[in-house]
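User: two proteins, same treatment. go.

Assistant:
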Amino acid sequence: MGDRKNDIANLLKNKGTVMNATQIADELECNRANVSRYLNDLYKNGDVTKSEGRPVLYQWSSVEEKEIRQKKINDKSVKEMSFKKLIGSDDSLKVMIQQAEAAILYPPRGLHTIIFGETGTGKSLFAECMYQFALESEMVKGDAPFIRFNCADYANNPQLLFAHIFGVKKGAYTGADQDKQGLMEKADGGILFLDEIHRLPPEGQEMLFTFIDKGFYRPLGESSITKEASVQIIGATTETSENFLSTFNRRIPMAITLPPISKRTIDERYGMVMNFFEQEVGRLNQDIIVERDAMLALMLYEPEANIGQIQRDIKVVCAKAFLYFRTHDATSLYIRLKDLPLNVQKGRLEGKSKYKKIDVLMDRIAKRTNEKNTQVVTFKNNETVEKNDQKPTVYETIDKKVSETDQQNLKSLNLKMLIDSDNKGYFKDYIEQLSGEGVRKELLPDDVWAVTNEVYDLAQNKLGQKYNESARFAFGLHLVSAIERIRKNVAIVHPDLNNLRQKNPKAFRVALEMADRIEHEFDIEIPLDEIGFITMFLSTDLSEKKQQNEIKVGIIVLMHGASTASSMLQTAQELLGTTKGKAINMPLDVNVSEIYDQVRDYVLDSQEQLKKGLLLLTDMGSLTSFASMLGEETGINIRAVSMTSTLVVLESLRIAIAGRELEDIYANAQHIFESSVKEQFFHMRPRKKAVIVACFTGEGVAARLYDRIVPIVNEDEVKVIRMQYLEKDAFKKHINTLMRDYDVKAIVGTVEVSYQRVPFFSALDIFNDETLQVLQRMLSDSDLTQETITALEGSINSVNSVPDLIHTIQTMIIKIQSDLQIVLDPEIIVGIMMHLAFLVDSRLKDQPIKPFDNIQEYSAEKHLQMEIVKTALIIVEKMYNITISDDEVAYIVQIFMGNTLNKISV
């Protein structure tokens, strides 16, 4: 127990009377918010009791009271918290659950919350879990209400909408013939869940403001009397925060975004499919046999409406199987791949790229269902499956229809409509489903994570900067290491402390406050050098984001010839859809000094636009010398690149538009040039692959990340290099040096580094097993190409050599990745190779082409990407004498751009 918590405990024990948090804070001369937090800790431990009502009064617990409370806790401990029963609670939903729990537990009455997420991501269920957690953590009374209301039901009638939420006074509008209680009043003491809250018009948002700010509201039509209520608001929406008034967004302090099904792990998808089938077993009171390929398809297809779509598709196919069972005297209820909707069946095609993991899951299914025949999965009806007897199910409706309807009319039975009508308890059993094996370990002790969030909340408030989950996690890892080093009396030395303090005075003052809180919690003394590292965690996050948003660098293309520069720049501008950049042509009969004066005058006239720097792209060395002279004469920071190609102009212009700084654009241009040279001179000595692992000290967190990565790589082929990150430019120069000897495949660290095309993985990513596997595949030398060839040799017979086809396609994919400046997961590359192989096969067989929706609009939007892919495809077209249409090119672009790793620095 910390010193301050002991002080509070001793005060209550010695006083022997009831006291509120303000009284305790005044007596101990400390912060009231901290006192409230410690009081809640003492209450959870059973050391104090607290009263209902406001203000809350606390008193030291007697021995008898402690025993009674402990018995209640023990009785309740057999039941896990609701969130723990959600599939993904220890993985993709972990952060969201932490946010939700924090919102419920926040004193004194929780934080109003808005849940963002696509249709079918489980927002309503998540809100119900928040309510269950509030009950189980005793933040609300046991009989506290949970009121659900869908704003969309009355979106076209604002008066009725407001009347439902806030109540109505008699005579407020035509038909209001009596006073009517609103949902706000019904929810008093509990939670009001407003689904589709984006359908609440601005006037309704304003009425909600008043309640959030002041704790009271007025029923519709009431002008003099106000009503009070203690209600926590939880909203849910499929829209973004931009659809709300800015004043509304500020008043909802907790925003939680639920991931779509595409961001959920395959283990979670497995848990959902298994759970939904077991639900249907409970409804049917009948075994269900599912073909293995049907299970694979359900686990791999892309559902339009996320989790809700998966459940609905399973309901439909089970209803279809039941109808067949009842009308054909079948001996069992059997579901085959062909019974699934076509879009679901296509999921089976995705299996090749995920086979290793899928095979593990199918083995797990076999064990879970005691199924010896791995070609089918049997879901057994037994006593452990919860029965749903609350209302007639869709199966009972089918049963009734079968009894009442002749065979011919059964063909017109609308199963989907029956499914839609059978939606009570849409995810009823979902909350009861135990999560599958978690893939992320508990890395941070609860007390470290709690303090991390507390001090970062303080930093956000003081600095006006939002720090995301990844930044907090990185600091938490660092804090664990720092505490350990301090307790072992290991020296902590910051090499540039004085300079850091001068550059970041505000962040340094906040770091001092953070250190004070950490010292009290962990009973340690934090040295000034460590406070320097804390300052870096705060200030680096700020500087990276601000620079990316603010920096604008000028581009001048300067070439010999009457129109070389203007032609090259025009091509790049058209591909990017921009007018940025300046072209200066140098006809051979014009004196060099005249051109220099022309460039200098342009730079002087454009100083305001070029204050972030200028990149000069030239064709020969004599023009490159302009850079130093222009810089000295104008004071502008100028870099020059010679032997410029169209690709260099294109990429330099692209990332300048994106707001990147001059040194990044310059380094990227050099890298493109070097890469093109390397491609031509294939005999260059091979370089060992490397992963760079970095943190501020180069020790604590870097060591943890190093230990996480080393087991997944072959150290004879891949070197994991630990580095210290203190200053961005110096760090990148160090990487430049390393790249002479190493092929740097990835950068891992606590601070995101944008370096050419090297993928970046945060500390949080590396402690996620699924993301770690992506890194492992990027570093692996496993011959996926040969596996692809083996898989296709029996399926493609229109070409003389499948290996030649695949090797050609592989070369083409490498070029497309390079030209698009993207990196793909190796498993995705295998899928693309197969797609392109079958595309060539279909063109040789002259099979029909599937049109691409809105091809003209898409081609205009993705003009650059379309041109890059078209160019790369020429080699295949000429090799096999085929033509690949714009529709097919658009599909290929869509595949590439839709599967880019989201951690790429370009």
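Protein 2:
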Amino acid sequence: MAGLLNLSWCATLVAIIALCFVSTRFKSYLAASAVIVNAIVTSLLAIGALNGEIKELIFQGNIFWGDILVRIDGLSAWFILIVNLTSVTGVIYGIGYLKPYVNSAPKLAFHWILFVIFHLSMVWVCMIQHSLAFLVAWEVMSLSSMLLVIFDYDKPKTIKAGINYLVQMHISVTFLTIGFIWVYFQTGSFSFDAFQTYFGANSNVWLFLIFFVGFGIKAGFIPLHSWLPHAHPAAPSHVSGVMSGVIVKLGIYGIFRIIYFLKADFLLLGEIVITISVLTGVYGILNAAVHRDFKRMLAYCTIENIGIIGICIGLGLMGMGNGSAILYYLGFGGALLHVLNHSLFKSLLFYSAGSIYQQTHTRDMDKLGGLIRQMPKTAVLFLFGAIAIGGLPPFNGFVSEFILYSGLLEGLKFSNISQISLLVVTLGGLSIIGGISVLTFTKTFGTIFLGNSRKQFTHQPVEVSSMMLVPQYLIVLVMLSVAFLPQFYLNTIFNLLGNLGKAMAIVTPSGLTAYSESITNINLYSILFIAIVAASWGLRALIMKDKLVKVEPTWGCAYVAPNSSMQYTGKSFSKSLGKIFGFLLVEEKKYKELEAGEIFPESRKYVSHYQDFFEFRIINYITHHLVYAANYFKFIQNGRVQSYVWYGIIFMVAIFMLTVLNVLK
């Protein structure tokens, strides 16, 4: 283990130094090589750990912080492999995506150095089992990702998004630090093993909730989510894909790691997590449905999927509290599988969105249309991601959601009426999430790719390069492997959970294989249905091969001058939904209403956008009053040198007087 990790460090250092000197056209390839080497090295360690071979390495410390333990167990291994896969596809996609910046050598060098550090820091977050070292790795991950977000630092909105992200990540670190210090003062150790001692002797609820807030900010649970809708649209698309695909999942990793040490209060914590998660999922997908910035829409979909993962985690906690092994496996198993699935289809969607943005230079779907003719491969890839994220067979999103639904139905066998009521509400919320998700991506795909172009671009959009398409093809292959070989993935996850469950006296139940068999059968029947439709289409094409086909415009009810502005837009598609949930979806409009008796109205412009409810109603309210209070102290910083000299004199006199008083005592 030590040799492989040293190889990883050496590859990183060599790449960082070389990136400062090599030619611009080789910088991206060098960074990709470093990421791939690190991914291979750490994946070799992780694969062994998935099979139950825990890898450990101890760095000798001092009397204060003690030895630093680096450990790769099954949980670490699962997240390391996901981080590596997504980072590799991201760096390859980034080679093609950043080609227009070939003349910005310093900017590219700095960006790729940060990407290499970002990838390695995420891996080390999964390996370190020491509080102080974990915080260092966590902070490196946050800072490097923030600097990656502000790649286009000449745009004020991008800088604002980066600062917003940085502030919220430091709020997250504050909560994590409080939790770690709390454990240290109770146990005298910074090792993660001290959590076991603490939870065995104290209440589990408050410390878990502190860590849930700290890790939940990174994950994106409401109301701790407001950085996502700003950071993801601002970042380059390969960075957005990696951040949405894996960095938010490290918040989930942290929550899982704390759950592993819990000793009591499973039911209460499970009910809290499920309640927050259902609200998170519904809130995320409602906002995704009404936004027309397609990268912002995808950011809200990340929040929705974090809600789905959270429901699975809460279900697993309830299984532990009720002594139900089947619920433990279905809940936590669904969560871990959806972590993988979401990293796949969300990175695919962000990469496809990046391809659209690169060719059109707009994120407003209402300015697009008909791109399926210019970018057919991107359209198909986006469609695959849209079907998968909607939880429809035969793609991978269906697999983890099927496991979740199975777990919820299993939970209805409880005798406790309050738990049954919560799970029934959760089922309803999950159904709403699924339905609105289909609406959201029907709107998005239809508005962007179908119909006619709504805007004439200076440069006609064309299909992106193979360098940007290949990583997306790779993701689709892995997605299909999850869909059609669910037994392999579920057996891996159940074995992983079995090893963790031994510490909690949870025995693997029989009958788990039935779920993977059901999933396989459903996906095969879905493929059969698709094959019948494709065969019918092919038969029709064969019959019509020698026939005259005449193409005419759609009948417009005798209107003879149709234009692209008459098409449904993203706004018109979701306006009714926005009105129904107007209390939660805050719409800002710039429009002068028609007055009574205005027979010949002047031309008007209609501009609207949706605000985030928590940011607009709560966070902005708090920050406004903080700024208002701080303005009363503006006189202190007045720009006069004489005042600053007086401040120094007063400070020195105060220090002198305090010293004298201490001496006299």
